[in-house]
Amino acid sequence: MLELLFLLLPVAAGYGWIMGRNSIRNDDVANQRKFYKQYTQSLNFLLDGQKDEAIEQLINFLEVNSSTIETHLVLANLFRRRGEFDRAIKIHSFLLQQVLPDELINKVKLELGRDYVKAGIYGHAESTFLEILPNKNEEVVQEILNLYQITKEWKKGIDVIQTIKSIHSTDLKKSAAHFYCEYADLLSSQYKTEAQLHTALKIDPQCTRALLALADFSIKNADYKSAKKHLLQILEVDKEFSADIADQLEHCYINLNEEYVFYEFLKSYSQPKLCVAFAIKYAKYIEKFESTENALQYMTQMLQDTPNIRAFIKLLELSKDAARSKTELVETIRVLVSNYLKTKALYNCRNCGFNSNQRYWQCPSCHKWECVKPSKGLDGR
Question: How far apart are CA 155 and CA 148, in angstroms?
Answer without folding.
Answer: 9
